[in-house]
TrEMBL record:
Keywords: Electron transport, Membrane, Mitochondrion, Mitochondrion inner membrane, Respiratory chain, Transmembrane, Transmembrane helix, Transport. Component of the ubiquinol-cytochrome c oxidoreductase, a multisubunit transmembrane complex that is part of the mitochondrial electron transport chain which drives oxidative phosphorylation. The complex plays an important role in the uptake of multiple carbon sources present in different host niches. GO terms for biological process: mitochondrial electron transport, ubiquinol to cytochrome c. Component of the ubiquinol-cytochrome c oxidoreductase (cytochrome b-c1 complex, complex III, CIII), a multisubunit enzyme composed of 3 respiratory subunits cytochrome b, cytochrome c1 and Rieske protein, 2 core protein subunits, and additional low-molecular weight protein subunits. The complex exists as an obligatory dimer and forms supercomplexes (SCs) in the inner mitochondrial membrane with cytochrome c oxidase (complex IV, CIV). Belongs to the UQCRQ/QCR8 family. It is a single-pass membrane protein. It is found in: Mitochondrion inner membrane. This is Cytochrome b-c1 complex subunit 8. InterPro entries: Cyt_bc1_su8, Cyt_bc1_su8_sf. One of its GO terms (cellular component) is mitochondrial inner membrane. The chain crosses the membrane at residues 53-70.
Length: 89
């Protein structure tokens, strides 16, 4: 063992005793780990969704406008009038 003497069990290494350390412990019966979790989850989720509605609404409206106008253009170009106007057939 290389000449080292026994230093004591873990936490008792033979040094001076530590003073001035305050430890606070909360009883397991006083803890409420999930207090208000469901209430907070519902209201935080709704608040976050409502704060993003202007951004999501704008993006949805723009995407819907592009989609409908592209469908109208495609329907026109594949119709008889569209072919006649473009001179394809």
């Amino acid at each position: 063992m290389g000449g080292h003497g026994y230093m004591g069990w873990w936490g008792n290494m033979g040094g001076p005793t530590q003073r001035g350390v305050v430890t606070y412990i909360l009883s397991p019966f006083e803890q409420r780990a999930f207090a208000g979790v469901v209430h907070n989850a519902i209201f935080n989720t709704s608040r976050r969704i409502m704060s993003n509605v202007p951004y999501m609404g704008t993006a949805f409206a723009l995407g819907y406008f592009i989609y409908t106008s592209a469908n109208k253009k495609h329907a026109y170009l594949t119709s008889k009038a569209g072919h006649a106007a473009e001179g394809d057939h």
